[in-house]
Amino acid sequence: MLSEPIPINHTPMLNRIFHKLPFRLIELAICAVLVVLYLPVWLIHYTYAHMKGQAWLQAFPVLGQGGQCLSLRVAAPLSGGWSARFLSQPCIAHSTLLLAIFSGKLSLVGPAPVALDWRDNQPDRYLSRFQVRPGLIHTFLIRSRVNIAFEEERELALLDASNQGLFARLGLLLRAIPALLLGSDKPQTDLPDHIDLFFMTMANRTRDEAVTEILALVQSARPCRIAFVNPACVNIAMKNDAYRGVLEQSDLIYPDGIGIQIACKLTGRRLKDNLNGTDLFPALVEEMARQKRGLYLLGAREAVCKTLVEKLAERWPELRVCGYRNGYFKPEDEPALAEEINGSGADILLVAMGVPSQEFAIDRLLPMLRVPVTMGVGGLFDFYSGRIARAPLWMREVGLEWLYRLIREPRRLWQRYLIGNFVFMWHLARWRS
Fold first, then answer.
1. Domain that holds residue 169
2. 145, 278, 314, 334 — which has fewest CB within 10 A?
3. Residues contacting residue 86 through CB under 8 Å, at least 6 positions apart
4. Where is 305: in which H helix or E strand?
5. Does the pTM of the predicted model rise above 0.85?
């Protein structure tokens, strides 16, 4: 049974109404345009449902502002062939929720609507989401569609509830456009564990699944190697047979970057998560710290490694950093280096030397190593040491992290991104044909 509605702070009421009025006018104007565009589709949907003897709309209850029960209506699923499946897509079936914005039940942007039993046993801090109207567009939706929803929905709902300013809400609305176009709403539970793309089979995992999988390999009877592949890696592999051969020998290949996600969408595939090393790293080392696992860092500059070790110790004091070394060594130094790594007691070796140098170094070192897991992680040390700033979260949400890096390092990265992105799409078109 529902508890009493959560009281709303109405003071100072005039200031709050004045503050919210501009966006209310904007969202009503946007909804009016969308309703006009959707009207023909709704008419077709209604006619199809009537001909099949089915109801057009179905109601479902959610909790709205103040914790009040709302009854929202969406188009009912249709039975039949491809036309019924097309009309039953969420972008069409849920479009009738636009009408709830006119009535004031929903906002265009805001915390996601939740089921009636959602607040059972929820800590009080999460109930503040009910201080504002729920929205069709919310942060969790955006990050889910671009595969970076690593935080709980309820945490992101607090973010949406607190960011109710005009520019914050407009920003959220604008960020939703590429997410809705490029992303997918297919549930993660319905996705395969592997994706075949280009010449390789990629592991399709959520971030938590990948962390569990990597740490499970620590118990492996033989050293394992893990690679991350982004569009630049594909471009290199297409013209470098040696690098391609090394990649094919990897025990696991994780998809990295918006380019791989776009390639999956264009070929009818869906990633569970964007498993770039930069997003995976904090979750991995946190679990390593909990399990008292050891880490060895190899790559980048000496000062970068030292700074990274200091920051790791500050954030995860229980993490065992068993050693580190810069990435400037010669092939004749590798036997001694392998012996040093073996003697460190590390469970995981991270190699940050850039592609394809790090994969070749791993391939040479692996026969001499007894470390259970070795991973090539590109520029990860530079990011987490603070030498290179990572793109703001809003740019990652809209798939523009590459543009941020290009702006920061144009001389080094212009060819990789301005030319490389087109080369990658050309390789994709050839592979599909």
1. 13-182
2. 314
3. 92
4. helix 302-315
5. no
